[in-house]
Amino acid sequence: MRGSLIWVICFGLILFSCGSNEESKTVESTPPQTENTAPETIEKNENQTRLGIDVSHFQGDIDWNEIKEAGILFAYDKATQGETYVDPDYKENHIGAKNAGLVHGSYHFFMSNDDPIKQAKLFLANALYEKGDLPPVLDLESGGIKGEITREEFEKNVLAWLEYVEAELGVKPIVYTNHSFGDQYLSDGKLAEYHLWVAEYGVDKPKVPKVWEEQGWLIWQRTERGTVEGAIGQVDHDLYNPEKPAIVEFE
């Protein structure tokens, strides 16, 4: 989930085509990409298309007012990772996105070798959740698998995090993953009770893990190589499913 040069927007969106305290970007692995590595760009929002971005400190300083002007309606910011890591730009990004009028959400990058409840407590101690915000997200990727762990143990720990955060905040978190990782590690039917944020790039339609086949996806991270005015460098582009009812008020 990537300064002084501002990128200018120029693309047209088509619906449905569309561990340590010293964190390393390589920890956050992403789903396999196609050979098309050219950055994509986002045009202004029209016709109820709900576009979003997700960021961490890797994006550097962000002009959130320009992000809003670009038609972006929502943003997810990385809050925490594992048992100890807090993203250094989280609070600044949270305040900037909120002040610019974007709907905001926070996510936690899950580490398999860390205690799930300690991870949940770290997230809750740092995430600035308020009524009207997007639900918290648990980021599940191959980069978070450390050492050997069975699918059953991983699922048990994931559910422990989800259930703890849900009980504390009174809102169901969202699960972020991709279909290959999900099919390998996530098969418990209880997971289908949580909305899915699926990542897949360079396709007309994302493939969801089997657990979510009936429910489908709520948010689709459709590229990690996007440019958008107001953000330094490339950011992840996200689309809220236009066939799903809005779970928050976007405007």
UniProtKB/TrEMBL annotation:
<keyword id="KW-0378">Hydrolase</keyword>
<keyword id="KW-0547">Nucleotide-binding</keyword>
<dbReference type="GO" id="GO:0005524">
    <property type="term" value="F:ATP binding"/>
</dbReference>
<keyword id="KW-0326">Glycosidase</keyword>
<dbReference type="InterPro" id="IPR002053">
    <property type="entry name" value="Glyco_hydro_25"/>
</dbReference>
<dbReference type="Pfam" id="PF01183">
    <property type="entry name" value="Glyco_hydro_25"/>
</dbReference>
<comment type="similarity">
    <text>Belongs to the glycosyl hydrolase 25 family.</text>
</comment>
<dbReference type="GO" id="GO:0016787">
    <property type="term" value="F:hydrolase activity"/>
</dbReference>
<keyword id="KW-0067">ATP-binding</keyword>
<protein>
    <submittedName>
        <fullName>Glycoside hydrolase family 25 protein</fullName>
    </submittedName>
</protein>
<dbReference type="InterPro" id="IPR018077">
    <property type="entry name" value="Glyco_hydro_fam25_subgr"/>
</dbReference>
<dbReference type="InterPro" id="IPR017853">
    <property type="entry name" value="GH"/>
</dbReference>
